[in-house]
Specification:
It is a single chain. By secondary structure, the protein is of the alpha/beta class. Helix content is 25%, strand content 16%. It has eleven helices and twelve strands. The chain has helices spanning 3-11, 29-37, 43-46, 55-70, 103-109, 123-134, 150-165, 229-241, 280-289, 399-403, 422-435, and strands at residues 93-97, 115-119, 170-174, 192-197, 217-221, 249-257, 267-270, 275-279, 292-299, 309-317, 392-396, 412-416. Strand 11, helix 10 and strand 12 form a beta-alpha-beta unit. Helix 4 (55-70) packs across helix 5 (103-109). It is elongated, with a radius of gyration of 29 Å.
């Protein structure tokens, strides 16, 4: 594709093969994987021929500076920040999706984070990332190996000393596409290649198939164009659930085309690699649907003029697992309605029964008689069946029932059915914690008797 064609696509996104298809354009995942299978597994290959110039260095530096500006505790002593904030006690973890050969992982994320999960669906890219990480080619994962000269040997020893003095770095490489990737449990999909590196003085299940992971940062760069609108929304929702806490961030760095007339959201399909390019308004629309808010936007400077504008969106979740302020719950009557003459006859129980007698004074609502239930005692329909926490209960019997509350954790709480075994309850409660779902009876059947 020459420069004139790229410029035309950039400024006229409505023109393209997508218009010849009914309905919204959608990428073909398998076709996209076949396209990248034919691309060389190198920096120059994944960057479309721009890997040998200044583009990689400019882009990597911009990403690191953005991370440090928003998360200063990632910094290390330097002239600009001589005394950075202390790092948290937990191991800082990042997710790099659609990571290719691990370019962003090795140059942006590993220097700042302790652990990185690298997810990529293309086999040759996964193999190259694993090879480079295992061979010690990534600066923050040094390995003792034979070198050609003394200068390289000195540099290798220096990196080894630096790694052993810190907390250690690890990379978990997973072969999985975004459509099926569950960030909270990255190893449950098509296959995990394994973890590279060591955690000094720390032991956990990082890198194992059943391991669950929480992230301080989730990084998505030049990969979300290969998923359809629905798959994108679903992935962003899963990513939001996998964050460690409310201050954890999701970064989306993607190509952006021009909006339509009047700022209308647009997207068009590139048939060559079967990927979508979305406009700025379209990205904002997707984030809103996924329950995310944009806390910062930044345009990547220094890119060649013939390329699309590259923009980074920094996202946080807008829907909290705790219920926001709601209408006050008002109970107009808290006393029970007693059956007429239940206080006089032993055989007439207190449970309410409507009097049917033609001359019954309660039915005829004579003054001074027992009150009868009526519509005026009803609660506000907006707070009916609402718990004091502001949630409404949903009975769950298994993990599939719990998954229904993924995007409704602010409105509904889970109540585990009484017939669920203790073993299954433990699994449901653990998954509810990951999803941010409140469980109203989390302690039921789990208490242990003291000897």
């Amino acid at each position: 594709m020459d420069m004139d064609e790229r410029e035309a696509k950039r400024h006229r996104p409505e023109v393209g093969s997508a218009l010849r298809k009914p309905g919204p354009p959608a990428p073909d995942f398998e076709k996209g994987v076949q396209y990248w299978d034919a691309i060389d597994a190198s920096v120059d290959g994944v960057l479309g021929g721009y890997g040998t110039g200044p583009v990689p260095h400019i882009e990597q530096l911009s990403s690191r500076l953005l991370l440090l500006s928003l998360l200063p505790h990632l910094s290390f002593p330097n002239p600009l920040t001589p005394i950075p904030p202390p790092r948290p006690a937990h191991r800082l973890t990042a997710l790099d999706v659609g990571a290719g050969i691990g370019r962003v992982t090795s140059t942006v994320l590993l220097p700042l984070f302790d652990d990185v999960v690298l997810a990529e669906p293309v086999s040759k890219f996964v193999d190259e990332a694993h090879r480079a990480a295992s061979a010690g080619e990534w600066r923050d994962l040094p390995h003792a190996r034979r070198v050609r000269d003394d200068e390289a040997a000195d540099e290798m020893r220096r990196r080894l000393r630096e790694a052993r003095a810190g907390r250690g770095k690890r990379v978990w490489i997973v072969k999985e596409g975004l459509q099926a990737l569950d960030p909270a449990r990255p190893g449950k999909g098509r296959g995990t290649v394994g973890a590279v590196g060591d955690a000094i003085g720390y032991k956990d299940d990082f890198g194992e198939i059943g391991a669950s992971v929480e992230y301080d940062v989730i990084w998505c760069q030049w990969c979300l164009g290969h998923v359809s609108h629905d798959d994108l929304i679903a992935f962003l929702r899963r990513a939001a659930v996998a964050r460690r806490g409310p201050d954890s961030l999701i970064f989306v760095k993607e190509n952006v085309c021009d909006d339509g007339d009047g700022g209308a959201p647009l997207e068009f399909l590139d048939e060559e690699d079967s990927s979508l390019t979305r406009s700025n308004a379209k990205w904002h629309q997707c984030f809103a649907e996924a329950g995310l808010k944009v806390v910062k936007e930044e345009v990547q400077l220094g890119m060649p003029a013939e390329l699309f504008v590259v923009k980074t969106y920094v996202l946080q979740k807008t829907i909290s697992c705790t219920m926001p302020a709601h209408i006050p719950i008002v109970k107009k009557r808290t006393k029970v309605f007693k059956r007429h003459q239940s206080d006089r006859y032993h055989g007439v129980k207190e449970a309410w029964r409507k009097p049917k007698g033609i001359d019954n004074r309660v039915r005829r609502r004579f003054k001074g008689q027992l009150p009868m239930p009526k519509i005026g005692y009803g609660s506000n329909s907006k707070t009916r069946h609402m718990l004091p926490s502001g949630h409404k209960e949903l009975l769950v019997h298994n993990l599939n029932d719990l998954e229904l509350l993924l995007m409704h954790s602010g409105k509904y709480a889970a109540a585990i059915a009484h017939g669920v075994s203790s073993k299954k309850r433990v699994e449901i409660i653990a998954r509810a914690k990951v999803l941010g779902v409140k469980v109203t009876n989390a302690a039921a059947k789990l208490r242990t008797e003291e000897a």
